[in-house]
Specification:
This protein has a six-stranded mixed beta sheet with strand order 9-8-10-6-7-12, with helices on both faces. The longest helix is centred in the first third of the chain and has 15 residues. With about 450 residues, the chain is α/β, with parallel strands linked by helices. The protein contains 18 helices and 19 strands. It is globular, with a radius of gyration of 22 Å. It has four domains: about 150 residues, Rossmann fold, CATH 3.40.50; about 100 residues, Roll (Ubiquitin-like (UB roll)), CATH 3.10.20.600; about 120 residues, Orthogonal Bundle (Fumarate Reductase Iron-sulfur Protein, Chain B, domain 2), CATH 1.10.1060; about 60 residues, OB fold (Dihydrolipoamide Acetyltransferase, E2P) (Beta Barrel), CATH 2.40.50. About 50% of the residues are buried.
Length: about 450
């Protein structure tokens, strides 16, 4: 089996973002740079740091393996300069392997883990609007993805488990090693929450998905792309901001926006040279429901499609506490409904002010009312193993089409066995059993009860 076939068969997807199928990303002969995104973009996330400390030799071996397959001659691990322990461990591992991997040490800012920011810093080039790093001769993967590739090539292992941190209102931050499909409730309870009636954020505080309804939380399970759970009181500031509705947003913007342009000046996409001006969207938001022609709508709101939804504009930059990100998300939907095709800038040039507009992570954490939890790190390099009786495995944990089940109710499956596969010619990823047991139901999810 070829390298790409092995990666595809293992069901590997990007584990640090939206879950782009890795066999598709690695199918290129245009890569000059192979970059590991190990900067952990948001506050309160511990997983990549844990994996770098505990699997440094494997990470180095994985980077060298993938770079060789790509034909990439320049190899970087991008991480924050403040990661002193991780840097020391990685430098030792690189020396032992005799590798030419370089460490790119970044300032402690948000969004340091934005792959387009990393590509710009390392290559000096900006990724085209709505483009991908290969346009700059770069392929970027996160730590967990690389380790999954290595495990698939060396051990024939499929993606069926996850490491993830649980932080916030818990006795202490913990690292869990769990089968995919375990309930989020079980993960949170294992970390001993210090409050009752909590809400959760799946991911980081800026771009993670927020949940406060108990019934919704009860349905949540761990997927291939999950790496962090934040436990917070239901009345926390972040949940209140997440609940803002479009009508309220439009009314607030009309009466309050002072056109200071801080949302634009602080925008990472604007700083990399993209046509991204949130203040222009905010200036025109009050008339979005008027009878505008498509050309006029494009001039007023077209920039919104370039928004990465990082949240700096609304959670840090805006002095009036408005929500340019939510406005951009709302406008993106309207642009799609109108069928308006926004032209792409193919050769953006980074702005000279880029380094001056980095958001210090500690100040961001304070602004997000997370100071109580900021600076609390894992006390151990041991992960807690959880072994649930039942797992519920979604057939779509990736960009693209859902996988098609290849098991039926009553079937016996082994851990790691294929239970759903992507149809030929479609973008997606295979799905595997995370525990050995009996299939209890098959729908858009597969439920497996562990053998006792």
């Amino acid at each position: 089996m070829s390298f790409l076939d092995t990666v595809k068969a293992a069901g590997i997807v990007g584990q640090g973002g939206a879950g782009f199928p890795t066999h598709v990303k690695l199918n290129t002969n245009k890569a000059e740079y192979y970059i590991v995104n190990a900067a952990e973009c948001e506050p309160l996330i511990e997983t990549d740091k844990f994996l770098m400390r505990t699997r440094a030799d494997d990470l180095v071996r994985g980077v060298d393996l993938i770079a060789k397959e790509l034909g990439a001659t320049k190899k970087y691990i991008a991480l924050k300069a403040a990661y002193k322990r991780e840097i020391a461990v990685l430098e030792d591992a690189i020396a032992r392997a005799g590798s030419d991997i370089r460490l790119h040490k970044m300032d402690y800012f948000y969004p340091a883990g934005d792959e387009q920011v990393i590509v710009c810093q390392i290559t000096g080039k900006s990724v085209p609007e709505r483009g991908i790093p290969i346009a700059c001769g770069a392929v970027v993967d996160n730590v967990g993805t690389i380790l999954s590739v290595l495990d698939a090539v060396e051990q024939g292992k499929t993606v069926s488990d996850k490491y993830l941190s649980v932080v916030g209102e818990v006795e202490k931050p913990v690292m869990l090693h769990v089968p995919i499909g375990i309930s989020v409730r079980e993960c949170v309870e294992a970390a001993h929450p210090t409050i009752k009636g909590y809400g959760v954020i799946m991911g980081g505080p800026m771009m993670g998905k927020t949940y406060t309804n108990d019934a919704d939380i009860d349905k949540l399970v761990i997927t291939k792309t999950d790496g962090n759970i934040i436990v917070l009181p239901k009345d926390h500031y972040l949940f209140r901001r997440a609940a803002l509705q479009p009508l309220s947003m439009k009314n607030q913007t009309r009466s309050t926006c002072i056109q200071c342009k801080m949302c634009t000046d602080m925008c990472p996409r604007y700083q990399t040279g993209h046509n991204m001006r949130p203040n222009l969207v905010m200036r025109n938001l009050w008339r979005i429901d008027s009878n505008m022609s498509d050309d006029e709508f494009l001039r007023a709101f077209g920039d919104a499609v370039n928004c990465s939804e990082c949240g700096i504009c609304e959670m840090f930059a805006c002095p009036m506490l408005l929500s340019p990100r939510k406005a951009n998300i709302y406008v993106k939907t309207l642009l799609r409904e109108r069928g308006i095709d926004v032209p792409k800038l193919q050769d953006p040039i980074p702005r000279e002010t880029m380094a001056l507009r980095e958001v210090p992570t500690d100040r961001l954490a304070a602004r997000l009312v997370l100071g109580k939890y900021y600076g609390h790190h894992l006390a151990s390099d041991e992960a807690m193993e959880l072994n649930p009786d039942v797992v519920t495995i979604p057939l779509r944990m990736h960009i693209g089409a859902p996988a098609t089940a290849c098991v039926a109710v009553g079937d016996k499956v082994e851990a790691g066995a294929l239970i759903a596969q992507i149809d030929e010619g479609k973008l997606g990823a295979n799905i595997h059993a995370s525990v050995g047991g009996t299939v209890e139901s098959v729908s858009d999810k597969i439920v497996i009860r562990r053998d006792q």
